[in-house]
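Sample 3 of the quickstart, ligand FE2/S2 (inorganic) cluster:
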Amino acid sequence: MPDWIPVAAASECLPGTSIERVAGNRMVAIANVAGTLHAIDGLCPHQGGPLGTGMLCGTILTCPWHGWQFDVTTGRHRISATMRQAVHEVCERDGTIFVRLTAPDSAATEQRA
Ligand code: FES
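Result:
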C-alpha cells in the first residue's frame, strides 16, 4: 500500500487554483475546487505539458501548452471518453497537503477497456 507523501503547504493551493508538485517520481497536478482538493497525474498526455500550472475553471483544468482539458474529479479528458489521467488520493492535515499515488498504469488500464 503506497504511503501518503507531503507535497505542499495548504496555503499554496487556495480555492480556485491548482499547483504542480513532484510526488515520488511522478508529476502531480493538485487542484482546489471550492475547498475540496483533487489530484491527477500532472504530465499532459498530449506533449508532456505541466497540467498543474494550467488554468482551473470549476472542475476543469486546462493544459497551459495547447489547451487540452481534464476534469480533476475524474481525470477524464473533456472531449475524449477514453482518455483519462490517473486520479490520486489527496488530503490536507495540519496545513500540509498529502497525496497517495495510484498505480502508474491505472489510467492506461481504463483506456484499454
Ligand atoms: S501538452 Fe498539454 S495540450 Fe499539449
